[in-house]
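Sample intake — Putative calcium/sodium:proton antiporter
Collected from: Roseivivax jejudonensis
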Amino acid sequence: MLTGLSIPILFAVFGLAGAAVVLASIRATALADVIADRTKLGEAMAGGLVLGAATSLAGVVVSVDAALSGDASYAFSNAVGGIAAQTLFLAIADLLHKRANLEHAAAEPANLFQAVMLIILLSLPLCALSGPDVAYFGVHPVSIAMFVAYLAGVQLSSSVKENPMWRPVRTSDTRRDQPEDDDEPDRSVKGPALQFVGLVAIMGAGGWVISQAGGQFIERFSLSSSLVGSLITAVVTSLPEFVTTLVAVRRGALQLAVGGIIGGNTFDTLFLVAGDIAYRDGSIFHAVEGNDVYWLGTGLLMTAVLLAGLILRQREGPGRIGIESVLMMGIYATALTVEVSA
């Protein structure tokens, strides 16, 4: 579709698609908060399931489109690069939350469980990469395991939210998940839900355009698929998570902010499942490059550090942010240096 466009127009189309995705995500954040309150789902669960999945749609479209075109590295690096970028966004949001360390203030058992779930889901592709090159109907068994694990994790996350077996210690800096102040507590969720679906459609269409533009960048500028996937399309399609996180923090919906990132990353692991199904030349896990695996390890390491921060709940660290945020920034900067210098 974009093959006949000149370079300036190609960049303009890429920018417009990215802007459409970001603007749609801003409105989606406010709607997700309303949906969380009216359905009694809670901010952490709404962030992880509703908002996280919706804002990840553009990214999954990129990975599937890349896999269909036969570029396994592009599809894989877009998925794992997005997970690393989105975790970095949470560290940046911590900088902007001046009152206390964001991970301290947003204490929520559901977020802890989803972080554990994300580590499990990121570990499974490592098993596939180091195991035998097998595929049934073009799909690796680990892809099936990841999908089943995701569904089980979602169900267990809901259980953790509804019937937590422990609760975090409340401090003066802990922000509670409070429903909207509404004189009509029984207002219908239908209107916000329909608007939300429309915004999701816009984000999906934007993701397809971004994918096509990324393919043109690889072809016209002779860039590596790993570079474009992990640092260009992954970051651009992750901007909704960045915007929604900043908006949520500004609104005081801290559990929604943290849950949106962790839940979005958890959903992003399904990019690999979708990419494996779409990739028709065997298992996608055995068609990737070394740099792609490095970004997978980076995402796994950053998630482990984030989980440690959520458990430690340091009130105030260097520069008024948690030590986990400092470490996540350092890990991402190292990965960026390795990718660019490769």
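Post-analysis note: The chain has one domain: 7-160+189-341.
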